[in-house]
């Protein structure tokens, strides 16, 4: 199990362990996981979270306590859902995207790879890969900070 919060760092750790490494899938006993929810190797659902049905959770994705993930969502590898993130149905979170505490995402939205969504944002439109968005409704900001150790 890799207890590494930052997605990029988690990805590097996986690479450093080589192709023979095997990873546990961790689902907290207080989590509610419905039918046809597929959770990838190394993914962690680390507290009371609710995943309804027909959901894919990618390898090494991290779902924090209090999250709700509705039907037909796809969570990419290495993505992070902060505490109490709420995803409506058919949302796609691409690889490595990082959603801060309390983010809400409207139905069908796609959040691009390694995008960052600031705490408390409400995302109603697609977010481009690598973009940082904040606010209600969420809009892009230019960030002073660029690097792998993104603020958690
Ligand atoms: C979005 C975020 C990554 C930006 O961090 P940053 O690049 O260091 O940005 P700054 O703090 O320099 O802020 C840049 C601007 O965005 C605004 N801003 C930052 N975060 C915001 C947020 N969540 N909501 C609204 N505005 C926000 C700041 O007020 C600032 O605006 P200004 O230039 O008008 O003063 C960070 O603020 C954040 O929300 N991280 C989420 C952390 C989290 O929830 N982690 C969960 C861990 S389990």
Q: What do you see in this structure?
A:
This protein is mainly β and 152 residues long. It has a single domain, classed as Hexapeptide repeat proteins (UDP N-Acetylglucosamine Acyltransferase, domain 1, 3 Solenoid). The protein is built from 1 helix and 19 strands. It has an 8-stranded mixed beta sheet with strand order 1-4-7-10-13-16-18-19, with no helix packed on it. The chain has a 6-stranded parallel beta sheet with strand order 2-5-8-11-14-17, with no helix packed on it. Strand 18 and strand 19 form a beta hairpin. It is globular and about 40 Å long. Coenzyme A binds next to strand 18.
Helix content range of the residues, please? Answer: under 10%
- Calculate Rg over CA atoms: 14 Å
Oligomer: single chain
SSE pattern: HEEEEEEEEEEEEEEEEEEE
Query: What's the domain count?
Result: 1
CATH class group: Mainly Beta
Globular, elongated, flat, extended or rod-shaped: what is the shape?
Answer: globular
Number of helices: 1
What structural class should be given to the helix and strand makeup? mainly beta
Beta-strand share of residues: 25-35%
* CATH fold group: UDP N-Acetylglucosamine Acyltransferase, domain 1
Instruction: Work out the number of β strands.
Output: 19
CATH superfamily label: Hexapeptide repeat proteins
Low-confidence runs: none
Name the hetero compounds present: coenzyme A
Distance between the termini: 20 Å
CATH architecture label name: 3 Solenoid
Largest sheet: 8 strands, mixed
Average pLDDT taken over every residue? 94
Strand order of the largest sheet: 1-4-7-10-13-16-18-19
